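Pipeline run #58 for the internal structure catalog. This entry was flagged by the ingest filter as a single-chain record with no existing model, so it goes straight to prediction. Upstream metadata was stripped on purpose; only the residue string is passed forward. Reviewer on rotation: M.T. Logging verbosity set to normal.
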Amino acid sequence: MDSLASAPFQETGFDIQSKPDRAQRFVAAKADLVAALGMWRLCGSLAMLDIKLRYRGSVLGPFWLTLSSGLMIGMMGFLYSALFHRDLHDYFPFIALSIVLWNFLLALVTDACMCFISVESVIRSVRAPLMLYAIRVVLRNLLILAHNVVVVVIVDLALQINPGWVGLLAIPALLLWLVVAVSTVVLLGALCARFRDIPPIVASLMQLAFFVSGVIWQPSQLKDFEWLLAFNPVFSLLEVLRAPLLGHVPSLAITASALIYSGIIITLASLLFARVRGRIAFWV
């Protein structure tokens, strides 16, 4: 009986009588990440399966999201351009890209809260790296984002919007988004597995962030107070990708704040995952 009880600890290289130190935790967390990245085909297959199951029996499948996003962007574009007295040719590409990127962020954060909880039975029955489930969530939302980008492309073609060479700055920004996305899923997934009150709190904060992060209004509308936006992490991360796709170079302050906030999220996620990785299976 004692040998069976200590078997899981022996497999991880830790003695049941001793707790792993900080270095051992980070080594185990790094091994978990490397193992998950090595299973990228499985992550992609699971993400595709999630989408197929979600839209099973549907004629348009995930393109229903594209259609609904297109209708919402069309109505909001005409309405808010009139309310804010903005030029439609300038405002329409902005609102289209903002809504598409915001929907990705909102879906990612919502799914992140349930990342480990939703696969409780799998975690307890299958020996697999926990980072696999985080990468699965990110890939699933990336596939949905790819469907919704069609709306942005149509708007840009219709209004003849071309970001030019500045648009290439979106490539490193997108890579930064991917790293931050995985870190956010791990961070929220672990916290929500332990504290079940966090998901509704996060949902309320995301509603607030929608109105204060320049999604439906342009930063230039703040005039003398535009510099305050650098202190908004959601806006900084949104603008660092949105600006190049609209043909603008992000300001130095926005780029610096986006990198700082990204570093904070990645550091917190790394520290938390290394510390609680072995407890998540007992929390879900």
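catalog note: Residues 131-159 form the longest helix (29 residues).
catalog note: Residues 21-283 form one domain.
status: ready for reviewer M.T.
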